[in-house]
């Protein structure tokens, strides 16, 4: 499911932005790429970790090397993605601005700041930086991805999809195919989304981490359509390619939970959070503990979600939408959660912003107002079981029995195990 708590971006396309910036990390600007992966104490470093060390050394030798500052900023963004440590965002911000102070028209630094703004959920800023990068180089494909990602979160879908199409025309590959897939998914074209993501898998086969990432994304599409066996196959293929790929571990935990193997699901989710402490992992682990009757452990994970969110905010990430959704789902300070949802919607007037606002209103008993925003959330024809569930519960709140059964039934028909928390509620409401 696309809209659980996130760190690296509001949509899966944001992670593709990190992949599309890989050319910069590999010296795609025409400068020499950093050397092979280094080792420390016999342990291999990740490519980005090695790149950081080498660029830091280069900058010690030449503190006015603007392009190395830009590349270092991109590498810091990748390290944030790899480790879940949001302090890398702050580091990236500093060195990218240093690069621009030395070379105001540096393309990598400007696009890097655009990608960073996406990761921090600052979408209007990202759009401005993306357009600035377009003026510097209108044929650089990654720029259309940044612009399109920002436009999606601002609810400007036609322009976003045109940007994705332009990107795919300029540079077919993992980053562009994954964005085309996401656009098709938003429009309810699950078959087309799967086809585009399969192209992304094929395009990524020469690199382990992008291959694992695309297989995870393909698995999520199968999962969202209720094809659990196909989803599991992709998640396990991701792990075979890149052991301990945290997103695949998290997704496989959902599969095990769907099959009633809660203990195995908990074990997988603990592995994921031990590798990279992301808020969505802590939230799901808490839900799994609660479903298993381990309430004290559940509360501990829910508290951890708050800690991680505060770290994100301290490093410039806007978390209003994710925090509102978590709090609403778990009955935490519902009036405050509604205020957060309204503020988030003003920043992100997307179908996801509409849906979270609708759900927050409904959980506060304001179901007539909620119905309007739920309609908006479904306006593209997106086949998202959670959005359909929210609409069904809103109709039920309004006493519209037939409509409630239609939407709740549609959610369960699409994916009977769409949520550890809410699938049982949907089944009970239909019973």
Verbal overview:
The chain is mainly α. It folds into three domains: 1-171, Serine Threonine Protein Phosphatase 5, Tetratricopeptide repeat, CATH 1.25.40.10; 244-312, Alpha Horseshoe (Serine Threonine Protein Phosphatase 5, Tetratricopeptide repeat); 319-431, Tetratricopeptide repeat domain (Serine Threonine Protein Phosphatase 5, Tetratricopeptide repeat). The protein is 74% helix and 1% strand. The protein has 24 helices and two strands. It has helices at residues 12-20, 22-25, 47-61, 66-83, 87-102, 107-119, 123-136, 141-153, 157-170, 174-186, 190-203, 208-224, 228-241, 246-258, 262-275, 279-291, 295-314, 320-329, 334-347, 351-363, 367-377, 385-397, 401-414, 423-430, and strands at 39-40, 43-44. Strands 1-2 form a two-stranded antiparallel ribbon. β1 (39-40) and β2 (43-44) form a beta hairpin. α23 crosses α24 (423-430). It is globular, with a radius of gyration of 21 Å. Residues 1-45 have low confidence and may be disordered.
